[in-house]
Design goal:
The protein has one domain: Hypothetical Protein Pfu-838710-001 (Beta Barrel). 10% of the residues lie in helices and 45% in strands. The protein has a ten-stranded antiparallel β-sheet with strand order 1-6-5-4-3-7-8-9-2-10. β8 and β9 form a beta hairpin.
Length: 157
């Protein structure tokens, strides 16, 4: 079984810009109920199907499978809930870990978050100077939640 252990942060500055050109991601949800999500994603010339379970103590089961890009694009166009998540993901190495900085577009324009995947919930890690407040415990910042209630609709940001 695959697992995901990640922490999510807002950005304190734009000092990360220019460290990676990034890649465009389009993703949508076939299911985004509490405790489980089924996501379709297209990244450049690849498609993915991902199933995630409920998080327990910061750890959640995750299964990801590569699928034909044509299938991913068709599911994004016809089956996924709206709005889709559109973003540019930048992967930035820092002191033994990779930070993923997501710049959102469309209905989530203006939101930028950084994630780090860890080997254990209590694993120590250094934060780059451009990392700000942690929002791991705020469910509004999950991509599934952003597809249900986009950033443009938030009263308080």
């Amino acid at each position: 079984m695959g697992v995901e252990i990640e922490k999510k942060f807002l950005l304190a500055s734009d000092a990360w810009r220019g460290l990676d050109a990034g890649r465009i991601y389009r993703q949508g949800y076939l299911n985004s109920e509490k405790g489980r999500t089924v996501r379709v994603r297209a990244v450049e010339n690849r498609g993915y199907l991902t199933i995630k379970g409920a998080a327990v103590a910061g750890v959640r089961p995750e299964y990801e499978y590569e699928i034909p890009l044509a299938d991913a694009l068709e599911m994004l166009a016809t089956l996924c809930l709206r709005p889709l998540i559109e973003k540019r993901r930048h992967r930035i190495s820092f002191q033994g870990f990779v930070w993923e900085v997501d710049e959102f577009f469309a209905e989530n324009q203006g939101l930028v978050v950084a994630e780090i995947e860890l080997p254990a919930p209590d694993a120590p890690f250094a934060k780059p100077s451009w990392i700000g407040r942690e929002v791991s415990g705020d469910p509004r910042y999950t991509n599934a939640a952003l597809s249900r209630r986009p950033y443009c609709l938030w009263d308080e940001k």
